[in-house]
Amino acid sequence: DTGVSQDPRHKITKRGQNVTFRCDPISEHNRLYWYRQTLGQGPEFLTYFQNEAQLEKSRLLSDRFSAERPKGSFSTLEIQRTEQGDSAMYLCASSHFLWGQGLDNYGYTFGSGTRLTVV
Amino acid sequence: DAKTTQPPSMDCAEGRAANLPCNHSTISGNEYVYWYRQIHSQGPQYIIHGLKNNETNEMASLIITEDRKSSTLILPHATLRDTAVYYCIVRVGEANAGGTSYGKLTFGQGTILTVHP
Question: Does the beta carbon of A111 lie under 8 angstroms from any beta carbon of chain B?
Fold first, then answer.
């Protein structure tokens, strides 16, 4: 396993266009997270899945954003009608959590991100 | 989750120990201290975490004060490849969250550590 993969690494799009990013987590991980990072700031949580269920969404995730994890494996993050303020690095992370085991951070692995530039 | 305070930047000479401080004066009894780092153009990387005892792994050591209001991440022999942004995060452990925690990490702005030759 090569870790968490994100595709594409870079995306330049015109304002108003739709974009979709893909994340392939570590295969045995049941949790998948999306974060957004702007220049000079730490990553900000967007949403998280446990298997195929989306269990939490940040208020940062406006109705133009949608995320899916249809079979509990890879995930997609779509941004509709992109705006210049959407320009950021979009990070995906995965982990494996078992109830009763406690912390899952040993396996909290980030991908290298997709850098989106909206022009 | 408790808020953390870190210095914005620090320098360290290659081969010397890098000691990165973090204040978390409002930490609760069931909150853990985590450290991640982010090298330029990569995603954050887990380093170490602890509750109240000092911890050591192959990457670093974590020293938590007895009152748990502050901690120090120690990189014993810093190399140029340790140049990165280091984030200190506190959060409730899953087992202590009554099943409501979802593992979200709340990042601050971190400390930019520059290791120079």
Answer: yes
